[in-house]
Amino acid sequence: MSDTLYLTKQRLQELEDELQYLTTVRRREVAQKIADARSHGDLSENGDYDAAKDEQGMLEMKISKIGEILASAQVISSDQFSYDKVHILSKVQIKNLDNGEIFEYNMVSPEESDFEKNKISVTSLVGKALMGKVVGDKVQIKVPAGILNYEILNISRID
């Protein structure tokens, strides 16, 4: 992974904590499962052993992925930006011009996106369309479900 990944200080800490947990607690737990399964004898027909080895493989992939993210992470803060236009770490209030509904989204990196928490990635279809826009701009976004029409009502800093 060579691209810089922008993370908030909070998300960086969450990933470091998760990596610490996975490399200590979870590795020991999985190693114990393998040892227990191995003690049951013939490994060629041992479903518990196969499942534990699969779990170990998945765990190591996750550890590797988090390590790659951390290696290319750069911490950013919302006070690094002005709020005259939409950028990463902006809180954007938009109005759906088709039904009048108002939404508020936090613009974040792909690694921090969580639609249920109104955190959308700056690389998503909606995120890309909003980037660089200013209050009052009307935005037409083509998504798989059709075309969305929004107006930007407000831009502020993520708290």
Account of the 3D structure:
There is one protein chain. The two termini are 30 Å apart. The strands form two sheets. The protein has a five-stranded mixed sheet. The longest helix has 30 residues, at 9-38. α1 (9-38) runs antiparallel to α2 (47-71). The mean pLDDT is 90. It has helices at residues 9-38, 47-71, 125-130, and strands at residues 5-7, 73-75, 90-96, 102-108, 119-121, 138-143, 146-157. 38% of the residues lie in helices and 26% in strands. It is elongated and about 70 Å long. By secondary structure, the chain is α/β, with parallel strands linked by helices.
Features:
single chain; 159 residues; alpha/beta; Helix Hairpins; Chitinase A, domain 3; 2 domains; five-stranded mixed sheet; two-stranded parallel sheet; 3 helices; 7 strands
What is the secondary structure topology, with strand pairs?
Layout: E1 5-7, H1 9-38, H2 47-71, E2 73-75, E3 90-96, E4 102-108, E5 119-121, H3 125-130, E6 138-143, E7 146-157
Parallel strand pairs: 1-2, 4-5
Antiparallel strand pairs: 3-4, 3-7, 6-7
Helix pairs in contact: 1-2
Short description:
The chain is of the alpha/beta class and 159 residues long. It contains 3 helices and 7 strands. It folds into 2 domains: 5-75, Transcription elongation factor, GreA/GreB, N-terminal domain (Helix Hairpins, Orthogonal Bundle); 78-157, Roll (Chitinase A, domain 3), CATH 3.10.50.
